[in-house]
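[#protein-structures] MJ: dropping Zinc-binding dehydrogenase here for a structure pass
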Amino acid sequence: MKAAAITAPGRVEVLDQPQPASSRDLVVVKILISPMCTEFKHRHGGPVQDALGHEAAGIVVDAGHSGRVNVGDRVAVMPHYGCGTCPLCTAGDYMYCPNQRDVLAETNQPYGTATYAEYVLKPDWLLAPIPDDIPLRHGALACCGLGPSFNAMQRMGVNALDTLLVSGCGPVGLGAIVQGAVRGARVLAIETHPYRAELAHKLGAERVFDPRDPDMVEQIREATGGRGVDAAIETSGAPGASRTLALATRSRGQVSFVSWGNDLDLPPLVPLGLDIHGCWHWNHLSMAPLMWETVRKAGSLLDTMVTHTMDLDDVAAAMDIQDTGACGKIFLLPHGQTKETE
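AK: finished. structure tokens for Zinc-binding dehydrogenase:
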């Protein structure tokens, strides 16, 4: 099968790799859509690696001995390889599992855990069945496009009475804007890139503030009647962003961090009374109905959020686009355009 790899610093190629086979609870999914995430950051100066990608949507083609999924099921492929038996996994918080499985060693196979590829090997319980009424291209966003900020929204209880501030309008931040709009919240955003600022407006952000403006926090407070926002989500990982969000949020408000980056720089929290959340991914075992309802309500906004759709063979060009920042979410199509991906 075809799969992408970083073959040298700055170089990404599509190589031939062995196609995985099922084993016990490990099933094979034919990847029809591979949403691109942060792997492009490893291309320049990063290590050579042949397993790129951690999210996907596709069809089960080899169900092994699974009692959870069947051949032909449309599924969203969740990240990670949690053990499935520890308290964190059984509660659905598999992303925090300290005993991640090495499924290639278990099955004595050389390849099969990457999603910038035509097929992937996955434990059946880490596949989220996509309801029949949801297009596969929308279901594919239930991973990193919507997942981290969905977790944040749930933990903060964002609703139509809230003003939500989103820091960073990359793909994760854009997903947060979509979900804030779907929940009826008033959405404000922070972004420097003109392309992404414009896209944020299209997805439901009322105003987009420039963090390079030294008066930005005062502007946000002015826009909220001097009160500050009710909830904020930090997705950028930019230095100083954490402090900015804390100061722009009202007393007894909430701030969620979904970015992986710098240590947090926060003002004294006691006088602010803020609730701080660290959010990784969403719990698909307990929250799937809410996620799929969110996807249904978002509808065409998700089509706007996906700005580029490209063949797997064009992965290097797709990463070039990601380098510019002039994009939302990018989809790779490992098997080209099909009826399912339309």
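MJ: nice. Residues 258 and 279 are 5 Å apart (CA to CA).
AK: one more thing. The radius of gyration is 20 Å.
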